[in-house]
Amino acid sequence: MQRLASFDGTDIAYVVEGDGPAVLLLHGFAGDHKVNWVAPGVVVALVHAGHRAIAYDARGHGESGKPHDPAAYAPDAMPRDAQALLDHLGVDEVDIVGYSMGALVATRLVPVEPRTRSVVFGGVGASLVEGRGVTSRRQLAEGLLADEPRSVTNPVARAFRRFADRMGADRFALAAIQQAPRAERPDLTKITVPALVLVGDGDTIAKNPDELAAALPRGTSRIVRGDHLTAMHDAAFSAHIVEFLNLCGRGEVPPAEGPSTDSEGAIDGVRRL
Q1: pTM
Q2: Cα–Cα distance between 87 and 33 in angstroms, integer?
Q3: What distance lies between CA 98 and its chain's CA centroid?
Q4: Please, which residues bridge with residue 198 across strands?
Q5: CA-to-CA distance for 171 and 161, rounded, in angstroms?
Q6: Per-residue pLDDT tens for 177-230?
Q7: Which of 3, 197, 221, 244 is the most exposed place for a label (fewest CB within 10 A)?
């Protein structure tokens, strides 16, 4: 991986694959660029479709720097890392694709980043509109800091702790992210570029994607198979991203419409969340 010293000196590890319009990939919490984008085939799909995929490990994750001080994860830190990387690579225009934590970063990045052409929000839905999740940041931090993983009783915190341990992640850095100052609730009306909301039919963390798409000025939504940790492995996940970016690239802005799905009964399943 290549490396960049970000705005505060934190080491950011990144890769660039392919040529063509730039796509910046922002991965989810406790993962890294390999788990979120390479292993599921998203990078390969983008490159084959003629895009330049830029993927990096967020601070606190993967091969990037992992401060244990919550102050290092102030609300503007991760968006500024993304901008530092775009500056470093000389990117003039970019499509942004974020998943879960990466999607939350994108809500703060897109309104202040004039180079953005379009945005994909993966793994987020009604919970973002409501401003609350099924598990609190405190519960996640406690789960990550617990000496004995089996003592973690909250199911979402337990799932993320198991995922972090399986990844060999620095759980103290991850806990610091959850202990950092809370970001202000994003003003979704400021996200004026075309936006795709992409959620798994079993994702109880994201909840209904329709509500987020409706809150975005130019939003549309799609549903694929999978839960919060597996949806990106559905082939339809990569296919929807490529289709959306190609439409935007041709100036054929996708209409703000209801969701579609490749899975029978998936829409009803998400609406019941």
Answers
A1: 0.89
A2: 19
A3: 3
A4: 122, 222
A5: 8
A6: 999 988 888 899 999 999 999 999 999 889 899 999 999 999 999 999 999 989
A7: 3
